[in-house]
Amino acid sequence: MNTQITSGIKISVATNFEGNYYKDYAILYAFSYEITIENLSTDIVQLQSRHWDIFDSLNFTESVDGEGVVGQTPIIIPGDKYVYSSGCMLHSTIGAMKGFYTMLNFTTSENFEVQVPTFKLNVPFAIN
C-alpha cells in the first residue's frame, strides 16, 4: 500500500489486477484501486476535484480531471476517513498513476492540493 501525507491529509492506495478485456480489436488490462483519504488535521475539509496522470509501459499517457470522486464531493471531519474504489484500463501489463485532489479547508475557506502518491499497476504474471 502506498501512503503520503500532505497538509494533514493522509492518502493510502491499494491496487488489484482485475483481468484482460477486448475492446476495438485491442487487449486492455483492467485494474481497480481503493483509496483511503484520512483527515489528520484539525480542520474540516471537502474534496472538490481530482487530477490523474495515467501512464503505461507503451508510453501511452492519459490525464483525467473531474469534479469529486465517484460522483461525490465528501466532507471529511478531523479524525475521520473516506474510502472509495475506482479503476482504469491500460494498453500494457505495467503502468502507474499519480495525481492530486483539490480540497477546500472550511476553516480558512482556501483551496489546497493533496498529493496522491504514485502507485504501480502491474499484471501479476508480468513481473517476477
From TrEMBL:
Residues 3-128 form the ApaG domain. It holds the Pfam family DUF525. InterPro entries: ApaG_domain, ApaG_sf. PANTHER family: F-BOX ONLY PROTEIN 3, POLYMERASE DELTA-INTERACTING PROTEIN 2. This is Co2+/Mg2+ efflux protein ApaG. It comes from Flavobacterium difficile. The lineage of its organism: Bacteria, Pseudomonadati, Bacteroidota, Flavobacteriia, Flavobacteriales. The gene is apaG.
